[in-house]
Design goal:
flat; five-stranded antiparallel sheet; alpha+beta; 14 helices; Immunoglobulin-like; about 20% strand
């Protein structure tokens, strides 16, 4: 920031120096204000160009689609299952541009599946009693059992009986009575009671991570195979707690004697050290599964299923080529998690359909056969099949062309609007001083007129729109007369005042597509050696490509452009340099005025002091 000499503002002269300098500078600022206004006009022009370029780019992208056969060769599939019902619950089909009209018979025999390997049983150690000793007598002394499920405690009463193995009084009846009483108290979806090797086993029925189970009552527990116990508990493994602290909840210790374990998934080896100074001593089961899932070489997603209390591994893609194979190399991580014996390897499956009697196998449930996209949903029974027809769909092609013509008309309207917009030269951009004296509404109305007509009769835009009109109105050489122009298929230019907008006779267009869709396609996308032999979309595409490039050169805004080196960009930077020079010149001019007035004030102040001294001297002698 620049600082000038101390300013003295009219204390001696009584003049309003601030106002005088402001008035003098106002006249000086008129030129720099004019530069600011010129810069603002260029910035508005630049934005107008860029807005048009955005619209041109949208039409350009749409024109690219119109060069593709898929915009014209539209087909639909019509058919049912052999019993007359809809086949959509088994598969869906979408005919592409390469589809061949005709009748097709399909049977879905197998869905593509991921390779999936999961624990053979729940990984958390269940609440397991000792071997039951028959006979088991339940009477008033031991028929009360306190059961806590997920923090809720209830007392259940077991049926009095002697279970000696006779009919109706077997160990299975004893198990069933315990389970029935617990389910009556807590609901049938909470706890399951089973017998394994003559031992009662208690565990959640589902959602293992949510529930804990506690049994209390020494006498009842003794009868159920938990002697000398006041309480027996089932607690789920905590996924995010250090694995070393959770081993007590597993069926066995997965670590070796050195608190380490090594295993491999699809040949990729993983090593973990849970020793006191080990790198992974704080790792949880979740951390380990996450490490497997994020390894690209392993190629699987591993997770814990809270509903089943199992670890699940799934391949990242479907198909018979997908395999999961796990092996313990040191320690017993996978064995403890229920992956052992035959349960250490699993392959995915390919999808399989019969297509007009020919078997087709694919790695995914979404695939293309003969130009028809299939999406399989469900396997059919051996006696089921579906039959459908692929037919020409002129309505879809008409919609595709309609959307394109709508965008073309919007683009033409935008450019024509800018070319004919009224220019109000008496409404230049407002200066800062002018803005201070106007309301927001007045500023808005003023700037609306100031921005109007900045691209009026612009030669660049005029050339683009004229080229587009020529492209859509000129016939395409080398095509039959019935489809060699847009007008021949029902797309015509409107009245002169519409300046090139296109109108569609849908019935005529639909008939042309239904009769010969490939000829309509060639009218749009045929590649030729020159303008006359090129299709309409091919011409428009080239015109738009050049127009977008020309506008970018004029106003910038190109993709990935870090520095605006356009014509207007340079002009604006030059104007900014001129403004800076003028602002510096005005600053020095203002300082010059202030120095002059400051010197004047000093002189007047000195004269006033002299006058006061003389007056005081004369007063003294007069006495």
């Amino acid at each position: 920031m620049m600082y000038g000499p101390m300013r003295i503002g009219g204390l001696a002269s009584g003049m309003d120096i601030d106002q005088i300098v402001d008035d003098l500078m106002r006249a000086e600022r008129m030129r720099v204000d004019n530069l600011y206004q010129q810069k603002q006009v260029m910035e508005w022009q630049k934005q107008d160009y860029r807005d048009i370029n955005l619209k041109l780019r949208s039409l350009y992208n749409s024109t690219f689609d119109m060069k593709l056969s898929s915009s014209y060769l539209k087909y639909k599939a019509i058919g049912t299952m052999d019993d007359g019902t809809d086949f959509d619950k088994y598969f869906s089909v979408l005919p592409g541009a390469g589809a061949i009209p005709g009748e097709y018979k399909v049977e879905v025999q197998q869905m593509a599946e991921y390779a999936r390997l999961e624990s053979a049983k729940s990984i958390t150690k269940p609440l397991r009693g000792q071997e039951l000793s028959v006979p088991i007598t339940i009477d008033d002394s031991n028929n009360k059992l306190e059961v806590t499920v997920d923090g809720v405690k209830k007392t259940i009463t077991l049926t009095k009986a002697t279970y000696d193995g006779s009919e109706g009084f077997t160990v299975e009846e004893f198990r069933n009575d315990i389970e029935t009483q617990i389910q009556n108290a807590f609901g049938s979806d909470k706890v399951q009671v089973t017998i394994e090797e003559s031992k009662l086993v208690f565990q959640p029925k589902e959602n293992y991570q949510k529930f804990s189970i506690a049994l209390e009552g020494r006498d009842a527990l003794t009868a159920m195979g938990f002697p000398d116990s006041d309480i027996a508990k089932y607690e789920p493994i905590k996924l995010n707690a250090p694995l070393k602290d959770q081993i007590k909840y597993l069926s066995n210790n997965p670590l070796n004697a050195d608190n380490k374990m090594i295993f491999a998934v699809n040949g990729k080896e993983f090593a973990f050290d849970f020793g006191e100074t080990g790198e992974h001593k704080g790792y949880s089961l979740n951390d380990i599964l996450q490490k497997i899932s994020t390894d690209e070489d392993a190629g699987v997603k591993a997770y814990y299923d809270t509903l089943t209390d199992k670890v699940v591994m799934v391949s990242k893609e479907t198909g018979a080529a997908q395999n999961i194979h796990v092996v313990d190399k040191d320690g017993s991580f996978f064995e403890v998690l229920g992956f052992s014996g035959d349960n250490t390897s699993k392959a995915g499956k390919d999808a399989r359909i019969t297509f007009n009697g020919t078997i087709a196998e694919k790695a995914t449930n979404n695939f293309i056969v003969n130009g028809i996209s299939f999406s399989l949903k469900k396997i059919m029974s051996d006696t089921q099949s579906a039959t459908f027809k692929i037919e020409n769909d002129p309505d879809a092609a008409v919609e595709s062309i309609k959307k394109y013509i709508e965008l073309y008309n919007e683009t033409i309207d935008l450019i024509n609007g800018k070319l004919t917009e009224e220019r109000y030269r008496k409404f230049p951009p407002l200066t800062d001083e002018q803005r201070k004296e106007m309301s927001e509404k007045d500023i808005e109305l003023w700037e609306e007129k100031a921005k109007s007509g900045l691209l009026r009769s612009d030669p660049l835009l005029d050339r683009i729109v004229n080229n587009l009109r020529s492209a859509v109105n000129s016939p395409v050489a080398g095509l039959p007369k019935s489809t060699n122009s847009l007008s021949a298929i029902g797309i015509t230019t409107g009245e002169w005042k519409e300046k090139g907008k296109l109108h569609i006779n849908e019935e005529k267009l639909r008939n042309a597509i239904a009769k010969d869709p490939e000829s309509v396609m060639r009218l749009f996308n045929v590649s030729g050696d020159d303008f006359s032999s090129q299709g309409v979309a091919t011409r428009v595409y080239d015109i738009l490509k050049g127009g977008i490039s020309d506008i970018t050169d004029k106003a910038g805004g190109g993709e990935f452009q870090k520095f605006d080196n356009s014509y207007l960009g340079k002009q604006i930077r030059d104007m900014e340099d001129r403004i800076y020079e003028w602002e510096d010149r005005l600053y020095r001019k203002e300082e010059h005025y202030w120095r002059q007035f400051t010197e004047m004030e000093k002189a007047i102040s000195y004269m006033n002091q002299q006058s006061m001294w003389l007056a005081s001297q004369m007063g003294m002698y007069g006495q």
